[in-house]
Amino acid sequence: MTRQLMLVTLAAMAAATPAISEIAPTAVAYTEGKISESLTGTPGDPVAGVKVMTTNALGNCVACHVIGALPDVPFQGNIGPALDGVASRYDEAQLRGIVANSKLTFEGTFMPAFYKTDGFVRPGNAYTGKAPESELTPILTAQQIEDVVAYLVTLKE
Amino acid sequence: MQKQMIKTLAASAAFGLALTGMAMSTPVDDKLVIEGEEGTIELVTSTKAPEHLQEVMDTIYSGWHYREDDTRSMQMDDFDNPAMVFVDRGRDLWNAAIGKNGESCAGCHNGPESMKGLRAVTPRVDAKTGKLMTIENYVDACVTERMGLEAWGWTGDKMKDTLALISMQSRGEIVNVAIDGPAAPFWEKGKEVYYTRYGQLEMSCASCHEENQGLFIRSDHLSQGQINGFPTYRLKDAGILSAQQRFVGCVRDTRAETFKPNSDEFKALELYVASRGNGLSVEGVSVRH
Fold it and tell me: Residue A2's CB: how many other CB atoms inside 10 A?
């Protein structure tokens, strides 16, 4: 396989093909901001969740949240509440809802919706500043949301 | 239940914010005293918010207050300020006979001191044409109409060197852009852009620079996003950055399709953001990270 073709194939695999049982961003059922069902049916991996939460190009949750349980992550922002103990404040369904679309729990919040693809003003093609070339994908995949939730539920007081 | 939950959560969030924000949330208490060719001057870098802002904040601060000690001190001596190289380049360009028929800026305007005060009142509506004019718009008109040259482009070196030189002539003057009369519709439009939550991250200028100023977004200490210091020497880019270039970067960071420099939207936004700094000193050319 040529390098280019391989990249294209990889990108397509990563971005486009949702698992059969995956719930699309536009099909998620919220009840008072909560999502009770897993978005994928595959249990989340908390270790992968930490990676998502601390990587700039992924969730970058630490841009705004301190996570005392991860002292090695440098420059944690302080815009949102610290996430330590968050699982004692919310159950799994609430946490899944907050990560997928926090606006349905916290009206008008600054926190971005990580599993949402419509209703934006001048959305761009990721961080290029340009118009999107194809349909928007959510900032995180369904499985990444599940991974993040799997880590959040471990953050008990 | 839903309402109740939102309320309780909002309260706990606000509490968390206050707690975590306490340590380093305030702008640094310091004075910007500059050793320059004209002697020692002290700039106004914080003051009472202009009347139109008083509902949302009491005090306005230059972005200078939010930067690290070494970045702040670079701006306190013109010898250390890397932007001065660009000001000097601007001066050479000002004097050069570059026009189609040998015209120069100096030929029509004498020394650059003739531009004193301009930076403090632009963007402004041109009385003759009714158009909103930035300094770049004025420069472009001279370059193309009076010197017979190709346009320099909004973010090219020549434009920014000239902008730096012109802005320096107003160092220490108090920003005072007009927001009423013919400026009012442009100002309103700029305000609308300022408060619109763009992009996939759904963030407005106000989300970062009004509601969360003083807090940290990752390692970045959020300032009020004032432009009294622009153009600035940005250490990260090792070059001069104009206000509208900064807007491009900030809007891009919201995963949005940005507006272009010199678009109607960004010109109006420049006027509006400038007006949020009415009362601060023009810094001439500042230094930011």
Answer: 7
At A20 the pLDDT is 64
Closest partner residue to B16 (CB to CB) among A60, A62, A82 is A82
Compute the nearest-CA separation of B114 from chain A (Å).
Answer: 38
pTM as predicted: 0.90
Q: A68 CB near a chain B CB, below 8 Å? A: no
Cβ neighbours of residue B159 under 8 Å, at least 6 residues apart? B136, B139, B140, B152, B153
- What is the per-residue pLDDT across B15-44, written as a single tens digit (0 to 9) for each? 333 333 334 457 999 999 999 988 999 999
Element spanning B33, H or E: strand B33-36
Residues of B involved in catalysis:
250
Which of 71-130 (A) contact B at CB < 8 A? 74-82, 89, 103, 105-107, 110, 112-113, 116, 120-130
Among residues B33, B26, B28, B30, the alpha carbon closest in space to that of B283 is found at B33
List of chain A residues with pLDDT < 50? 1-2, 5, 8-12, 16
Nearest 5°: the CA angle B276, B281, B286 is 100
Q: What is the pLDDT of residues B267-277, one digit of tens each?
A: 999 999 999 99
DSSP track, B124-179 = EE-TTT--EE-HHHHHHHIIIIIS-PPP--TTSHHHHHHHHHHHHTTTTPBP----
In whole angstroms, what is the distance from residue A69 CA to residue A54 CA? 12
CB contact under 8 A, A78 and B219: no
The complex's ipTM works out to: 0.88
Chain B residues near any Cβ of chain A (below 8 Å): 1-2, 5-6, 9-10, 12-13, 15-17, 20-21, 25, 196-203, 207, 211-212, 215-219, 248, 251-258
Q: A73 vs chain B: nearest CA distance in angstroms? A: 10
pLDDT, tens digit, 9 for 90 and up, residues B184-215 = 999 999 999 999 999 999 999 999 999 999 99
Position B96, amino acid: A
